[in-house]
Amino acid sequence: MALECALALAHNRASDPAGGQVKTLLIVDHYLIRTAICDTLRAGSREAQILEAADTTQAARQIETERGLQLVVLDLSLPNGDGLTQLEWLRRSHPVFPVLIVSAESGQEAILRALKLGAVSFVPNSASQMVMEHALRLVLAGGVHVPPDEIGRVAVVGPTSDEATAPRRPNLSLTSR
Fold first, then answer.
1. How large is the average pLDDT for residues 135-150?
2. 10 Å Cβ neighbour count for 139?
3. pTM for this one?
4. In this structure, are residues 114 and 86 in contact, taking their beta carbons and an 8 Å threshold?
5. Residue 55 and residue 77: Cα distance in Å, rounded?
6. Is CATH 3.40.1390.10 the classification given to domain 4-8+20-165?
7. Average pLDDT of 19-26?
8. What is the DSSP string of 18-77?
């Protein structure tokens, strides 16, 4: 069963005018990586509801039962399934919320494949908390994040015909500290 990681600043339940509560599902099998991402989300948002899934089965259950998901953080290497297959399913069945990829694999081919399949961000596991915060801010504002070292080597990827007609997702944001 996926665990709810945190509700940051639970004492302040009022709607945040700069973006409100961001409900995020982390699909990452490594506990330490999940914890680091939770900490980053909590550090950058007054309120962040973070749900966890350690494999594709837990993830599918969470996605189908949880309402109001606004962001998915997906690891490409999962114990019971391929992250790219999960990404394809997410883009077909839930095109509104953005998918940020985290992965130990960070080469040009992996980044390009993820972007072509509809990911809006790719953050290597080796990235700093500052890089992850930057990626989250861009994604929640409707932007795309690619590792700085790869920008010049990764071709610009346009949306597929399905993505071009998909509903636009709302502009969400993390608040400043």
1. 86
2. 24
3. 0.75
4. no
5. 9
6. no
7. 81
8. TT--EEEEEE-S-HHHHHHHHHHHHHH-SSEEEEEESSHHHHHHHHHH-S---EEEEESE
Please tell me what DSSP assigns to residue 104: S
Average pLDDT over the chain, rounded to an integer = 77
- Return the structure tokens found at 41: 């989300």
Instruction: Give SS3 for 146.
Output: coil
Least confident of 19-33, 54-68, 85-99, 122-136: 19-33
Single-letter residue type at 30? H
Q: How confident is the model at residue 17 (pLDDT cuts 50, 70, 90)?
A: very low
The vertex-22 CA angle with 17 and 26, nearest 5°, equals 165
Q: Which residue has the tokens 């009022």?
A: 14
Q: Cβ distance 32 to 75 under 8 Å?
A: no
Q: How many secondary structure helices (H) and strands (E) does the chain include?
A: 6, 8
pLDDT at 125 > cutoff 50: yes
> Two tokens at 131?
């890089």
Rounded CA separation 150/48 (Å): 29
Polymer length in residues for the chain: 177
